[in-house]
Amino acid sequence: MFISLEGKVAVVTGASRGIGLAIVQQFANSGAKVVASTRQTSDELESLSQSHSVLPVVADAVTESGAIQVVDNAVKEFGKIDILINNIGATDPRQGVGFQEITDKEWMEMVEVNLMSVVRSTRVALPYLTKQGGAIVNISSMIALMPNPVIMANSALKAAVTNLSRSLAEEFADKRVRVNTVAPGPTRTAMWDGILPDDPNEAQSFAKNIGISLGRFTQPDEIAALAVFLASDWAAMITGADYIIDGGLVKTIH
Asked: Measured between alpha carbons, how far is 179 from 162 in angstroms, rounded to an integer?
């Protein structure tokens, strides 16, 4: 099913690679004008900007000034904002250490990147989204529901993003701004290079062994397709929802 976002202006943070880049690609293919925020651009993003209505903005959208810069560029170039995709995120700086070993500094780094990036970009974009109504899609994670002590801080902060999204959905419903989260499971991005086997049969066994019922990792374009749907008029009656896309992994907590 083709979903048209013709006439819409979307801001995507964390847009240069992986899930963010796939979201930019699919939004552009759906007809949206896309402002792609990134701390450092990529060849793939630059190529998209040559063939589609994509405006890369190099800024650190984790910070308040960076978030303002991105939104200001979007409004200056396209005159409005209809859609915000908060995709910035990072995993724990020291994976696998116990709770007692995670320092305050490391906790605050995770708070800044995973939570405050959503707070700041949302706060700056909302005055424009409320003018005509719109959609916010926050990229959370299935670890918000199935916390992993190996990445304890990341798990806690993704849960905070999911909770925040529900509160925003309630507060801004009267302003016709819908807020939903997408919670991916393990996704085939560069972070799994050298870990996930290249051989399809071995990759399937790997996925099954970690509990993914469908026997494979999610592809970034599958997450992007879900984000397009939630941002579109097809999802006009969906807000405050959390969509898990993990091949059945979260079943293990039920």
From this structure: 10
In angstroms, how far is the first alpha carbon of the chain from the final one?
A: 32
- C-alpha 252: how far from chain center: 24
Q: Please give the radius of gyration of the chain, using alpha carbons only, rounded to the nearest integer.
A: 18
The answer, yes or no, to whether residue 252 has pLDDT greater than 60, is: no
pLDDT at 22: 97
224: CB partners within 8 A, 6+ apart: 19, 22, 23, 25, 26, 27
Q: pLDDT (tens digit, 9 = 90+) per residue, 130-146? A: 999 999 999 999 999 99
Beta-carbon contacts of residue 232 (< 8 Å; ≥ 6 apart): 3, 4, 5, 30, 135
Alpha helix locations (H) across 83-233?
104-110, 117-132, 152-171, 200-209, 220-231
Q: How far apart are CA 95 and CA 74, in angstroms?
A: 36
Over pLDDT 90: what percentage of the chain?
83
**Domain boundary assignment for the chain:** 9-188+218-253
* CATH code for the structural domain at 9-188+218-253: 3.40.50.720
